[in-house]
Amino acid sequence: MAAPEPTGEENPEPLQWLRANQELFTAMGSLAAVAAVIVASYQLSQTNNQLQATRKQLEATTIYNIQKDGRELMVGAQRDSDV
């Protein structure tokens, strides 16, 4: 069984359907772009919130460590009479 010989003519039906519905595809692409912008904005907002929480935690940790080191220095200074 041999494959049919190409006649040189393409089936214009799929291309006509795409051309006829070009406005629909354009609208769907625009909606997809708007949805992507909304999702990206939400993700950036969430990232910003996480960065703020991380910054606050880092500040709290730094302050705690400075206070702890200060207490250790004060106790060490009180024990050593030469200081």
How would you explain this protein's 3D organization?
The chain has 83 residues and is mostly helical. The protein has a domain at 33-83. 80% of the residues lie in helices and 0% in strands. The protein has helices spanning 13-20, 22-79. The radius of gyration is 34 Å and the shape is rod-shaped. The mean pLDDT is 87.
Layout of helices and strands:
Blueprint: H1 13-20, H2 22-79
What is the succession of H and E elements? HH
In whole angstroms, how far apart are the ends?
104 Å
Helix-strand makeup class: mainly alpha
Uncertain spans, ≥5 residues at pLDDT below 50? Answer: none
Task: Choose one word for the global shape.
Answer: rod-shaped
> What is the percentage of strand-forming residues?
under 5%
Tell me roughly what share of residues is in helical segments.
over 70%
Main beta sheet: strand number and arrangement?
A: none
The averaged pLDDT comes out at: 87
Number-wise, the strands total: 0
Oligomer: single chain
Number of helical regions: 2
What is the alpha-carbon Rg in Å?
34 Å
In short:
This protein is mainly α and 83 residues long. 80% of the residues lie in helices and 0% in strands.
Which features does this protein show?
2 helices; 0% strand
